[in-house]
Structure formats: C-alpha cells, structure tokens
Amino acid sequence: MRTKNVSFKWVLYVAAILICLFLTLPLLIIILTSFGAGTSSVFPPKGFSTEWYSHLASQKQFGQAFVNSLIASSGATLLALVGGTLAAMAILYYPFPGSGVLKAFFMSPMVVPKITLGVAYLILFSKMHIAGGLFALILGEAVTVFPFVISIVGSALANLKPADREAAADLGAKPLRVFFTVTLPQLKISLLMAGAISFVFTFDQVETALLILRQGSYTLPIQLFIYMEKWQDPTIAVVSVMMIVFALLLFFGIKVALKSAPAMEKMLGKK
Amino acid sequence: MSNQHAETTAIEARNIVKQFAGHTALNQVSLEVKRGEFISLLGPSGCGKTTLLRILGGLEHPDEGAVLLSGKDVSGVPAYGRNTNMIFQQLALFPHMDVYNNIAYGLKVKKLGKAEIKKRVAEVLELVQLSDYSNRSISQLSGGQAQRIAIARALVNKPEVLLLDEPLSALDMQLRLDMQHELKRIQREFGGTFIFVTHDQNEAMNLSDRIAVMRSGVILQYGTPSEIYERPVDSFVAKFIGDTNLLEAKVIESSGSKLIVECCGRTFEARNPGAAGVGSTGHLSLRYEYVGLGESAERCDNQLTGKILESVYGGASIRYKLDIGGGYELTANVQYQPGNPIYGVGQEIALGFQREYALFLDDSREA
C-alpha cells in the first residue's frame, strides 16, 4: 500500500515537471534566441552576442509602440474600472426589472468573438471619425475587459456589509462621502486585481488593434507583427524578452502591493 | 405649554405606519421619549421594533406619521441630517480604519479641527475605558471591546438620542451582563437619551426606565418595568415579561376592581385592572411567585389543594408544578432558604393566592 503511494507520488512529480517544461521551454528558447549572433531567428542560436539588444535601441518604432501600448492599456483599464464599478453598483444597490439581463449584457464581450468586435468597431469608429487612433482602441478595449471588472468588483461589492454604509450615513456622511470613505477603500484589493487582469489582457490584444489602428499609433504586438513580416532577425526575440521582463515586474509589483496592503493602510491611517 | 413639551421630550413618533411589500410592519405607532430616559423596545422578532428604531434614526422613512426630534419635525430628513446616532446589531465598525479613525469619522464629517477631534476621541475612549486602544485595528478587538468602540463612535457626536439595535445579542451571557452594567454607567455619565431594541425581557427590565412591549407592529404597553410586570395589559404582555400561569376565566360577578371569576371549574376572587364586566371572558394571570404553598396558603383569599407533579430545585427558589384537579395545572415558585420545607412529588398540599395578585385580563382587548 505504502509503496504504491510513493510510486504514485513520483508520477505526479514527473507530470508536474513535464508540464513546467512545456510551459517554460518556448520562453527559454526565446531568451536563448535573443542572445544569438546570426541575422535570423534560428534555434539553436549560432554563437552568443548582445548585438540585437543594442540594435533594438536604434529601432525607435518599438519604443513608440511600447508607449502606445501603455497608454492604450492604462486608458482602457481605467475606463473599465470606473464604468464597471459604477455599473456593478447600479445593478446591486438599485435592482430594477431587467437588471439581471443588463448584467448578462455587460458580461457578453467575454464570449463575442474578438475579431467580430474588431470589425464592428472599425465600422462604428470610422463613422465617428476616430478610427485609427489610440482613443478608439481605448474605447474598444474597455468594452472587452468590462466583464472582468463587473464580475470581480461586483462580487466584492456584494460582500460588503450594507450596515457599514448605513453607519456612515448615520454618522452624518452624505452618499458621495460614504462612497469615497467607506465603499471604495474596501474595494481597493479587488480594484487592483481587476485592474491588473484588464491591463495584462489589453496589453497584448491583437485582434481589435490590428483592425482599427493606423501607422503611428501601432501598439507593441502590432509593431512586432509588422516587423516580423519583413525581417526574421532576433530583434523579435529581444522585444519578447523585454515583454517577459515587463510582465514579471508587473506581476511581482502587484504581489508586493497586495502583501503590504495592510501595512500600507496602517501607514496611511496613522498620518 | 408646547415649549415646555419640546424641552422635556427628546424624540417622539406620531402615528407611524410602515409597510413592506404589502405587509404592515408598523401600524399607527406612537411613542414619546423624555430627555435622559432609557427606553427599551421589547418584543419577539418581526414585531416591528427594529423598523421603528430605524425610522427614528432616519434609515427608513415612514409611509404615514411623523418623527419629532426635540419638537422639530424631521420626517423628511435622511439619517445624515439628524442628530441621532445608531449602534447596529452587527456594530458595523469600518474594518479598513483603526479605532481612532472609526471614532473620529463623524467629527471629520462635521469638519471639526484636528485638535478638537483628538480631544473628543480621547474623552470618549476614556468614557468607555479603552484609552490605550486608539491605534488598534478593528480586527484586533474582542467582542466586548468592539462593542465599546461602537458606543464610543456614536457618543462622540453627542447625539440627542442614541439608538441601540440589539447590540448585545452577539455576546455570551457573562459579557452581556457586564455590558448591561457598562451601558447603564455610560448613560449615567453621558446623560443622554437611549432607545434600546431587544427581544430579551431580562435585558429590558435591567436597563430601562420605561419599556414599550411590541407585537405585530403595535405597541401593546408602554410603562415602567414594574407597571408592565405587575399590571400587564393583556395575556401576551403578561407571558412575555416574567413567568405567569394563564388560566382561562369568565367573569361572573363584578364590583369595582373586585371580580369573581369562574376558572378551572371553581370560582376565584380576582383583581380587575380594566373595565371587565360580568360575562367577559379572558385569562387569569397568576405569577409563579404569587402562588403560596402549605402554611402561606392559609391566609390567602383563594384557597385550594393540589398534588405536586414536579419539583425543580433552583437554589434560591424551588419551582413546583401542581395538579389542581380537572386536568388543570399551576406552577408555583417558592422562595427557599435552608430549613424551609421541601415538598415531594405526589404530596397533597394546600395552595392559595391573594385576590390582589390574580389579574383578570380581558381577551376582547386584543383582536
């Protein structure tokens, strides 16, 4: 019985290691390729060099694309957070006939094919004469991440005690003050989580961006896509490594923020 | 006259009607509370006591009727515009703020100066005897401490009326008794008007200057604890406050406050607190401790014999269940001191009660 258990454990370990390899190997290959010496992305790389990293410095379009991506993702995330929180509050606090249907409607971008949405945006935004710019992308992507905010912030909102709001009102706070001093601070962590997921999700969004963006406002994934059509050198790998580093930084940043949230609150509260 | 009225009345509800989805939670309820009084709203759950409290605090709005705070009509004023404060059943301390910021919340809303806020928070923390706790987070407080902080957070605003919605119900028995003393002390020192909602009759008796007994959205009786205990207006109040024998009875003779009633197949002399006439039917209410056994039965206006069915020793008293024939039972609670006789099960014994203590409660009043 005991030996059986042990052998089964090993099966689990091996499976886990294999899955880890499967998940990390592509990333590993990218990292190795980025240090290659040749003029094309081949694996295994011929020789070691950092020339492509220095080469990247001269490729100004990637820097611009990175900034564009940052703007688009931040804008879409902010818009979705504000709109999603307000919508979740409306549905929860002021239930009306059809509020359930409305919630389902807000969740629908999750299942609608992104490419369909992209085509729809292209037509709509062209009519509005804003197609091609980052503003259009922000509007479009905000809709696609709206479901994350509605579900994450909405469930946090549902867990707040109504008595807390009543207590604040009883202590003399008007509704707006109640929101900013009692409701919002208790949503901090779920807002951070919904924001992080939305940001990451929109950062490498291709389908919509590909359809509605024009040259000059290309985001990073689109710029990579276009570059790859012309060149096969390791620049792509270098940019990918930079993106991995950025994602890791973001991930650990959020982890640290979440871990130190009570400590930070204490610091702010003491002031 | 009306001026004097406003001076002594802290808060008043006039003919309040409140309905929730077709169900009448409050039906023409009026209540007047004097400045400095400690009032309890007492009743079983669903009787409308919490709804009445929330209406007084402005968290609900009545469908009909008015709420007067110090003589001013505040019916249309929401909670944040009223100088009342509530202590919630779940306390509702803000979990994202420490003790200091919880207590200071109301003062910050009023935009008081920082020094003034600090001074008043320190004062109120001293009142609830938790001076060293201002930097604690809410999750670090014990049940009793959280209770005191909730009281402090309300009192720091110097409300005209403090509303308490069963705040002690989550505490265990001993802590509950401690907090009752604590509440009384705080009220004495603070000198405010307290309205306390509870379903616990002992709590209401221990704390209150006056008790309003509620059932099904109406106030059945509003009076001092002794009035309610000794002169309940109907059998519901008699049964809800204290232990009482309720025996079906019919009036066969009436002269002023003295009645002869037919009850358990016998006739008894009883007291008439209302205006029951010959032929009225109702209940005879006889508190357990008013039934005398053995020697003490000899001097009673009403005398009979019974057989002991059960005896429960309770230290200071013994509770006997007696069979008085005809399928009727009476319970007697007899003071006990070592040396007093203890009657055994099955023993035949004389029992009796005074006319003065046997209340005839007319059932036609209810309905």
TrEMBL record, chain A:
Cellular component per GO, a single term: plasma membrane
Subcellular localization(s) per the UniProt record: Cell inner membrane; Cell membrane
Pfam families named among the record's database cross-references: BPD_transp_1
Entry keyword set: Cell inner membrane, Cell membrane, Membrane, Transmembrane, Transmembrane helix, Transport
Main location: membrane
Membrane topology qualifier: Multi-pass membrane protein
Protein family membership: Belongs to the binding-protein-dependent transport system permease family.
Protein name as annotated: ABC transporter permease
Species whose genome carries this gene: Paenibacillus agri
UniProtKB/TrEMBL annotation, chain B:
Keywords: ATP-binding, Cell membrane, Membrane, Nucleotide-binding, Translocase, Transport
Signal peptide range in chain numbering: none
GO CC, alphabetical: ATP-binding cassette (ABC) transporter complex
Domain ABC transporter positions: 11-241
Gene Ontology terms for molecular function: ABC-type polyamine transporter activity; ATP binding; ATP hydrolysis activity
Pfam families cross-referenced by the UniProt entry: ABC_tran, TOBE_2
SUPFAM superfamilies noted in UniProt: MOP-like, P-loop containing nucleoside triphosphate hydrolases
Catalytic activity: ATP + H2O + polyamine-[polyamine-binding protein]Side 1 = ADP + phosphate + polyamineSide 2 + [polyamine-binding protein]Side 1
Listed Gene3D superfamilies: 2.40.50.100, P-loop containing nucleotide triphosphate hydrolases
Protein EC: 7.6.2.11
Function per UniProt: Part of the ABC transporter complex PotABCD involved in spermidine/putrescine import. Responsible for energy coupling to the transport system.
Family: Belongs to the ABC transporter superfamily. Spermidine/putrescine importer (TC 3.A.1.11.1) family.
PANTHER family membership: SPERMIDINE/PUTRESCINE IMPORT ATP-BINDING PROTEIN POTA, SPERMIDINE_PUTRESCINE IMPORT ATP-BINDING PROTEIN POTA
NCBIfam families: potA (TIGR01187)
Subunit structure and binding partners: The complex is composed of two ATP-binding proteins (PotA), two transmembrane proteins (PotB and PotC) and a solute-binding protein (PotD).
Name this protein carries in UniProt: Spermidine/putrescine import ATP-binding protein PotA
Organism from which the protein derives: Paenibacillus agri
